[in-house]
Amino acid sequence: MKITLHKADRKKSRIRVGLFGASGSGKTMGALLLAKGLVGSWEKVGVIDTENGSADLYSHLGNFTVATLRAPFHPQQYVDAIHALEDAGVEVVVIDSITHEWAGKGGILELADEMGDDRGRGQSNKFTVWSKLTPLHNAFIDAILQSPIHMVCCGRSKQDYVMNQVEKNGRMVNVPEKVGLKSITREGFDYEMTVSFDIAINHYAATTKDRTKLFDGKPEFKISEETGKQLREWNEGAAEDFEFLRKQIWKQFARLGYEPQNKEEATEIVAEFSGKNPLPLVEKNFAKILETLKAAKSLNEAEGEEIARDNEELPEQQEGATPDPKADVKSEEVEEAQDKHELKPIKDTVASRAAKLKKSCK
Fold first, then answer.
1. Do 270 and 150 fall into the same domain?
2. What is the per-residue pLDDT for 299?
């Protein structure tokens, strides 16, 4: 396999933040404020809520979008919620919390119990169980790490201990020693994050990992909107990742119902959506083009809204009223026209599809 080499160059990335703390430490509030600072608007914030509707208690903060998950907390349910919020157009997702995927009802550990991991059937059975469960958990992790938007992951934590041997009354005994907090999820999750924080019960946070070096070695502090702004400014100071943007532009083409086969066709689509000042499909315009396409409605969405508006405009016939014969004639004409339309082949060009979308968006 050919190995490609390049000079080290930090590029803009999707931020992954981990917030871990005991119940009542302020994870949800901190995560929401950080997310708002990261993207600048509550409308761009999405929340996956597994904490019995706790996200709705913070609706006074702003108009963010919530996906509520209920037991069983199968990993695939998280994956589906992440993709749903991505499709909804949010730019950051707060997962509150990841712990249920691991230790909640219907989560990985409960699935392991149900499949026989704790029933004394031997080491080989344990390997068989986890060979089936590990891919499910990895799919959950991949959905977080591969998402094209920012992710803020909250997780519960508990006091962790180690056993130390000390001499007491002439003999060695094991004595437990507190060594800080341990997140309730599969070991190593916090190392997947860009930044990880441990939050104490007094709401003050300390970093356990920080690739940005913004908070590493700093005094403990309360997470706020300013924390998110600092991460956003750090990220915007990096070079643009044009390859990532290019892939996202092509994903938007697919969402809108297009499959350009080459750059010329892609350029034609972009021109139709760019208005009076078409944007050439070159790297320096990728970010603006992506925002333009994200704001556009797909043909199916536009046609659905048009049908809904037509239905709203139809007059309601009062009960007992005499039917209007002219209306029946008109209805028959419409049905006949629709039948002909279904049989008539229509050349669905880029221009005609874009024109329909523009008309529906007015």
1. no
2. 55
